[in-house]
Every structure is written in structure tokens, then in C-alpha cells.
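Example A, followed by Example B.
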Amino acid sequence: MNFNKIKLHNIRKTLLRSTAAALCAVTISASAALSVSAATASTAASNAATSAGNAATSAVNGTVQSTTGTTDTTGSSQGSSDNQWPASPTISAGSAILIDADTGAILYEKDCHSRAYPASTTKIMTSLLAIENSSLDDVITFSKAAANSYKWDEANTGTREGEQFTMEQALYATLLKSANEVAYGIGEYIAGSIPAFSDMMNERARELGALNTHFNNPNGLSDTNHYTTAYDLAMIGRACFNNSTFMTISSSVNYSIPPTNKTAETRYFRQRHGMANSNGYQYEYFKGGKTGFTDESGYTLITFAQKDDMRLICVVFRESDDASRYVDSKALFDYGFNNFKKAPISSSDVSSLFNSSNYYNSKVFGNAGISFSMDSAYVDIPQSASITDIDISVSENSEASDNNYDFTADVSFNYGSHKVGTATLLVTTPKSDTKDTNLPYIQESTSSVVSQKNCLVINIWHVIIMIIAVLIIFEIIDTVHDNKMRKHRRRSYNRRRHR
């Protein structure tokens, strides 16, 4: 009987330890699984916008994953498109560019990113800043420094110290007469000093897309630290073309300033741009522009022209003579107007890049769709081309936003190797991209905040500590029980011995 009790006790002891060990193993496995599941779910939920952005990036770049494989559309027609790009005229300018003012498409360029002295074409930046930072009826009082800032053989209006112009009069004197001292006075009035105004010029130029420009004065007089490029001046020109006040003044042929507080005579100005006058270089599509010349810069010119719905900007630098800058500009304008057309492009023209994507065809994400919107945009393509010849690329700087799983992508439309337009896409993924049956985190239909489903959260270390505590208690109980059994056996032995 004692043997049976001992045997039963050992069996119970073994069963308790086995059960505890099994419970520990099961709990650890379950807790680890829950941890992995929760981590996976959290990662999937937090990366939904980024995943959508990556999918959109791939799609917009022209590489779309489909059930039949990967199709690369970015370079399939590049060679043939380049071969169909219209032959350009030969010009004598050292550097030049022809762009569409609306799309930014470069229709022609010659060394357009090389530095050059802009001379008085600088004054379009001076005038634009003045228009943006003052009223036309503001009164400028010219300082002694401004009145003495020119030489007798440089463009000027003979402005005197203390003389007063309205801002409107000063702008006409700057853009039509190209008066250096008036540009100087504008800079002082707007910023308080020429260095401060130069800083404003450089900051605004960068905002407008200039890449290699540094202005050091408001009038363009020669300075080794005063330079720009044909491309940069064209980017500044886009803002000027879109400013109605600037264009009204720039396109005027004649202007006069009546007597002032210092001058009794009326000052008369005539447009210096040859394409505005009937002197052999007049151009019927001329809308405005600015001339420039110094010994260091050679002849420079920026011109705005419009034919029907196409607005073009032409910049020529380092011309050897006055006539060449007009001949080259006219040739480039004719090239642009005669060989290119402006074609509208919309979201529907881009949507095919997304249709075959199965990026979200998975058990986690389900069949999530991607939608996007794009403001109306235009591209400049050769007369013989069509929208189907256009490829699309996305800017490397595109990023997913922090709200509503949106992804903003700056895209470029390309005809072969030529960028013919730009636009911004807003890519949106549905808020129910994840299946709530597979993830412990779901997207509420009325909120962009990720909420947690009702679920049991188990801390693995708490479970382990509890199991160890149970095992210790079992061991203590077992030890106490063993001691009692030993004492009982000794007492039984002693009784039998003394019988």
C-alpha cells in the first residue's frame, strides 16, 4: 500500500511538471505568434501610404506590374521620337533657348546652361520685384548714389538727386529706356540698399527655377559676380509673361514722363526692342522683351511672343552685333510656331499606366484600387506627333504625404529625350485598402486615424514569470509533501521496530 501511494505521488508529480512545461511552451508559441502578427499588421497599416506611393511611382515611371509580366514604356519610342524632332535653324548666338511659357517645354537650346553676362536683360528681374513689392503710385525719391550711378555713355534719363518718380514712371524708364540710375533707385526703394536688393533678386530667381544665377546689381552693369544663363533668364521670363502689369509696360512702344520737381522738361521714351518697331526687325507676334549690351556681355535679348494659344520665350546671349540677336530670335520663334503644336493632356491620358497594376492583389490588401487626379496640362509636340507618343517620368523628389494616404508626384511628359510638359498628380488609395479580417488594425470609414480592433494583448514576459512562479509553488508543495512522507515513513518504521 505504501508502494502504491509512492507510485501515485510520483505519477502526479510527473504529470504536474509535464503539464506546466507544455503550458509554458504553448504560451510562448502563442505569444510569439501574436507579437509577429501584431508587428506585421502594424507595419502593413503604417506603410500603406508609402506602398501606395511606391506603386504610383512605378506606374507613373512607366513600369507597371501585370499578370503577364513587366512592361517598360519609358524608352520604347525614344529613338524614333528623337528622329522625328524637327530640324532646328542655325544661329550665331553663343547660347540660346526657346521655351513654351506655359508648359516650360524646351523647344530649342544651345549651351543654355553656360554662364553669361546678362547686361540690361537683368532689368526684367528688377522690374518684376518692384511690381510684386510696391504699388504703381508709390513715389521714389532718388538718392545721390542713385543719381550718380551711371556714366554719360550708358543708358539713362538724367535723373537728379532728390528727383521724384512714381513707381509706374520708374518702371517705364527701366524697361523702355533701360535707365541704369532708375533701376538703381528702384532697388534702393524696395530693399533699402543695393546689397539687400541683390539678395532679393537671387532668392526670387531661385524660386522661379534659376539654377546658375547670381545678381549683384539691379541694372546689369558688368560685374564678375553678376551672371546668369539663357535657361535661368527664361525661367524668370515665365513669371514676367504671367504678370499683366509687366507685360503692359514691356510691350509699350512709347511713353513720356511729364516735368518733375527737379526737371522742367518732358522726357520721351521709345521702345528699344527692335522687334516692336518698324525698323526691319518688327515681328507680328511680339508681346514684349528687353535688350542688353555691354562690352563684356555682347548683345543680349529676351523676347516674348504669342501666336494663337502658344506663348513662347526666346533668350539669346553673346551675340556679336545688334542685328544678329533679332535675326536669331525671329528664326527661333518661326521654328517654334511652325513646327510644334500645344496638345491638352488629362488624367484619362495617363490612367492606362495604372490599369494593369496588381500591386495590391494579395490576401492582406485585397484588390485595392488607385485613383488620381491631375489639373489640365498641355504638352508641346511636333506637328506630326500625337499624345500616344508621349512617355511619362516621375520626379525623384516625390513623396507620400502624411494625410489620407495621398501621394503627390511631379511628373514630366517626354517625347523621346525631350521634356515637352510637366504636371502634378495627386494619387489617392482607398481608405479600406486593408482587409479587416486579416489585420488587427483597421481604417475607420469616417476618420483617417488608424484604430485598433478588440483583441487580447499578452505580454510574453509576464506569462513566463507567472509560469515560473507556478513551478516554484509546485516544487515547494512537492518538497513539503516529500518531507511529510519521509517523517511518516520514519514514524511507521519506529513503531514496527518497538513492537
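Example B, a separate protein, is given below in the same form.
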Amino acid sequence: MVKKIKLNLSILALILLSIGCISNVNENNNRNYDLYSKVMCPVCDGQTIGESQASIANDMKNIIDSQISEGKTDEQILGYFEDRYGIEILSAPPNSGTNAIVWVSPFILITFAFILFFIWLKRSVKENTK
């Protein structure tokens, strides 16, 4: 009876350890693909390195893979590419400095358009009621 319990517990422990290893591999793969989507291909128009089949994109993917295996963080890896290619290499540039204008201006323009639309609507209703 005790041998069966030990055998069952050891099988359960082995299964749990196996599941832990599998999830770590998937996590690293998801991290790779996430980083691939954050770096633009320098020779392709509007494509990230995850979408591109260019040789430089494949080289950049290999660099990301090696840096992940070295234990670098996402910020360090993105900083590596930003140092070499400039901020344009990032698919979503940080929303600080002059880039903040790019992030904020659509909201300002949409708000301004709604205000103009309601002013125009109010005037046209007044003119039609006369």
C-alpha cells in the first residue's frame, strides 16, 4: 500500500515538473514573437521582423533569440536595436517627448471635429426653424 502511494506521488511529481518545463518553453516562444512584433524591418516598408522574410529580419530574429537565451530583458533587447538603428526601428515608439504629440493629436483632432460638427448641427437646426 505504501509502495503504491510513493509510486503515485512520484508519477504525479514527474508530471507536474514536465508541465512546468513545457510552459516555460511556450512563454519564451511567446516572448520571442512579442519582440518580433515590436521591431520593424529596416528594409521592408511597414513590416515588422515577425512579418518579413528578408534576410536581415531573420538575422534580427536570431539576435533576439540569442539575447533572450542570455537572460536579457525586453527593454534591454529593444534598447539594443534602438541604439543601432534609431527610434524608428520600434513599431510603437515611446509616448514621450515629441512622440507624445503623435499619440495625443488624434484625440485632440477627433474632439475638435465633434465640437465643429455640433456647432454646425446647432446652426443648421436654427436656420431650418426660421
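On Example B: The domain at 2-93 is CATH 1.10.8.640 (Helicase, Ruva Protein; domain 3).
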